[in-house]
Amino acid sequence: MLRSHFMRLFCAVFMALFAPQLVAAQEAPAVTQQQVQLDINSADAATIAAALEGVGMVKAEEIVAYREMFGNFSSIEELLEVKGIGAATVERNRHRILVINAP
Q: What's the whole-model pTM score?
């Protein structure tokens, strides 16, 4: 008998403490890949791969290698010079890419 009262009390306290946070977490809009913007001149390969649609780790590493070899990107279109990055990929991600600190 005492055990069932304790369990009811425990459940009531648990719900009072954690239910508002659980509801808020469910109602909060999820951060989507489309909301992310990154500076292509400072992002590392993992960040690039996570932020850009159609760009995996291999292509992201190519972007970083190109940047290290030739310096900062001066425009988004310069990404077309990177092996494996085509016009469709650039257009699909144009709104996600920032070119900051261009020479």
A: 0.65
